[in-house]
Amino acid sequence: MRVLHVAAEVFPLAKTGGLADVVAALPVAQAQQGADVRLLLPGLPSVMDGVQHARPVIDIGSCFGALRVRLLLARMPGSALPVYVLDAPYLYRRSGSPYGNHAGEEWPDNLQRFALLGWVAAHLAADDADLRWHAEVVHAHDWHAALACAHVADHPASEVRSVFTIHNMAFQGLFPLHDWPLLGLASRHMSPAGLEFHGQLSFMKAGLQYAHRVTTVSPTYAREIATPEFGFGLDGAVRSRGADVTGILNGIDAEIWNPATDAAIAERYDLARPQGKHACRRALQAELGLAADERSLLLAVISRLSAQKGLDLLLAALPQLVAAGVQLVVQGGGDASLEAAFRMAQEAHPGRVHVHIGYDEARAHRTIAGADAIAIPSRFEPCGLTQMYGLRYGTLPIARRVGGLADTVRDAATTLGNGFVFDEATPMALAAAVLRAARLRAQDPAAWQTLQQRGMAADQAWAGAARQYLQLYRDAAGRPGTSLTGGGAGGAGGAR
Ligand code: ADP
């Protein structure tokens, strides 16, 4: 099975969130299971600089507003996985995130930047770009890659199958409808059964409507996005795809996130040698200037600071938690008002609250290893990775029962508990869960240890999810596709 994964980011070359971790680990796990897997990425500066042994495949010439576009084939650092890179300096060579500038403003030409990505992906599948390799399955991740699914569906001779994975329904790639001519797609797709979305054009819909299969990153989120509460206006489109939409829970990279071998942490530990975690805890308190307090619950947050993550609930609950002796370490960035509020919280609670605004991988490892618990009070959470990192490091997740959190965290009060779960998105419900954790840790260390051991022993590696995706590709290939040239897969019985 020849599989092309298409995405805007991949760890360690470019990362803004969990998407990058998935795109780094899933293809490698699939390759280990015998699939012939390659990546396609935009040539962001960090990607151009980070890949190895790059050589030109084809000179594409001028398109999507760029004068020079070339396709390169290189290797990923570390895994050596083959990676196609779109070298289009005019579109991708800028400093900032994959999506915008340092001030957080999106690039004004994102439509062209990601239209190019999907278009080239479809050509790679159609044996039109690299004469030595073509994909049987195009696996497009998030809206950035979604146009690949429309192009694949549009090609009359194509036997290629496309899979679209939604990593976050909140980000849909919406652009003015009058920019349609820039897309390079036939105008018959410019309808509500195609890419049109309330007077705008939606990249997300290209994946939702045209992919042979649509997946998201946890079973619970797959159900949630079919409801108005979580569907961000696309719940109807999700429902119309019926059983074509499924959830496959993300794994974690069990080599990068392994306390037994983690070079970033003060002392390595595992189930057989759990003492190392105490050393990590002391080292973290010392590093961050927190009181060397053995009894307090040391709570961590590693997160984008956005409304999605529910961290305003934590801010509201903080005075009560600090009064109860909780220590808090926050590492994150994003929303300016949340950044400012957390900075103020640090000033208000010296020695009890530490806030680091910024992105730092090694520091994230030290924090997760040193903390007792990790809070993820998200309003919605497609999968969430930090609760899984927490489980692996004996750092108990305190999570809202939503999306992938509901699929991975089980409350301490249940037979197979591995953390603490709450339902309401309120400061009170969050505070109650944190205080429950603090009490259990202080009053029943043996029960606490049992929870830790359960999490640390769990298999969260990618192998299982990789197998499920490969099976999904086979299912998609075994089912005859319907020509989409009539204009989109609209209704319940719509194509594929
Ligand atoms: P999302 O993709 O919605 O941001 P996830 O939990 O799926 O949330 O993935 C977030 C990823 O980004 C995790 O690997 C987490 O460790 C990492 N991360 C988030 N913020 C930071 C930060 N400030 N420093 C280091 N890593 C971070």
Q: Can you tell me about this structure?
A:
This protein is of the alpha/beta class and 496 residues long. The chain has 2 domains: 2-251 and 464-495, Glycogen Phosphorylase B (Rossmann fold, 3-Layer(aba) Sandwich); 275-457, Glycogen Phosphorylase B (Rossmann fold, 3-Layer(aba) Sandwich). The chain has 17 helices and 18 strands. The protein has helices spanning 18-32, 45-50, 89-92, 110-125, 142-154, 203-210, 219-224, 235-240, 276-288, 311-323, 336-348, 361-370, 386-392, 403-408, 427-443, 445-457, 463-478; strands at residues 2-6, 36-42, 52-63, 66-75, 82-87, 137-141, 161-166, 174-176, 196-197, 200-202, 213-216, 245-247, 298-305, 327-334, 353-357, 373-376, 396-400, 420-422. A 9-stranded mixed sheet has the order 3-4-5-2-1-6-7-11-12, sandwiched between helices. A 6-stranded parallel sheet has the order 15-14-13-16-17-18, sandwiched between helices. The protein has a 3-stranded antiparallel sheet with strand order 8-10-9. Strand 1, helix 1 and strand 2 form a beta-alpha-beta unit. Helix 9 packs across helix 12 (361-370), helix 10 packs parallel to helix 11 (336-348) and helix 13 crosses helix 16 (445-457). The chain starts with a strand and ends in an 18-residue tail after the last helix. The relative contact order is 0.11. Residues 479-496 have low confidence and may be disordered. Adenosine-5'-diphosphate (ADP) is lined by residues 17-18, 21, 302-304, 331-333, 359-361, 364, 383-386.
